[in-house]
Amino acid sequence: MHRMFKSLMAAILLASLTACGSVPSATRSAMPDDTMLGGALPPDVRVESFSVTVPRSLKANERNLYYPIGDIVWRGEPRGDRHAQVKAIFEASLRDAAPRIDGARPVRLDVQVTRFHSLSEKARYTVGGVHDIDFRYRLVDVATGQPIGPSKLVNADLDGLGGEAALAAEGRGQTQKARIVSHLSRVFYEELVVPGGHVTANLGFLQAINDL
User: What SS3 string covers 59-123?
Assistant: First the structure.
């Protein structure tokens, strides 16, 4: 019933906003079982290694709708193993961010993706939308092997370009994948270096629909 309500809301929202050039977004699915034991941010850490998990319990949707329901919606690469593609995106962002997180305390960063809802082809080349990305992470002390505090759930939403803006960005080499990798790299850096961590972008009412 809850999913039906959200789908209806999305359909109504799409109908009302398409005419004024706005965009639909995705809904937030339930998290898979959280097997991570925790990791609050201590000061002055250095990322020596990392791991990324994309649980198979996350459901991928390949339907070309404005608003496909699912945990994983990803069309920035040829059709294939979407879980593996999302994992590779996170790993690329961590490889970029890790050398810049160079404090005194060596840690392992464990990441579990909980949602990766990008844009369908139909949304990408018309109205755009929101890349709705959520993940949970923990830090593990390398010396002791013990988690540091509780795990943290992070919302890393990014505006999803559409229409002419999307085509222009691709022409500059700023593909969906390139933008998301760069964005996630910045999110990880902010989480582990900037006081208070990453602050989720305010993307308006469409983003708020995801929290219903």
Answer: CECCCCCCCCCCCEECCCCCCCCHHHHHHHHHHHHHHHHHHHCECCEEEEEEEEEEEEECCCHHH
Instruction: State residue 152's pLDDT score.
Output: 94
Mean pLDDT, range 116-122, rounded to an integer? 95
What is the pTM for the complete model shown? Answer: 0.80
Q: Which CATH architecture has domain 36-204?
A: 3-Layer(aba) Sandwich (3.40)
* Total residue length of the chain: 212
* Boundaries of every domain in the chain: 36-204
Q: Within 10 A of 102 (CB to CB), how many other CB atoms are there?
A: 11
pLDDT score at 211: 53
CB 102 within 8 A of CB 108: no
Which is it for the CA torsion 110, 113, 118, 120, positive or negative?
positive
Phi, psi of 33 (to 5 degrees): -55, 130
pLDDT digits (tens, 9 = 90+) for 190-204: 999 998 899 888 766
141: β partners: 107
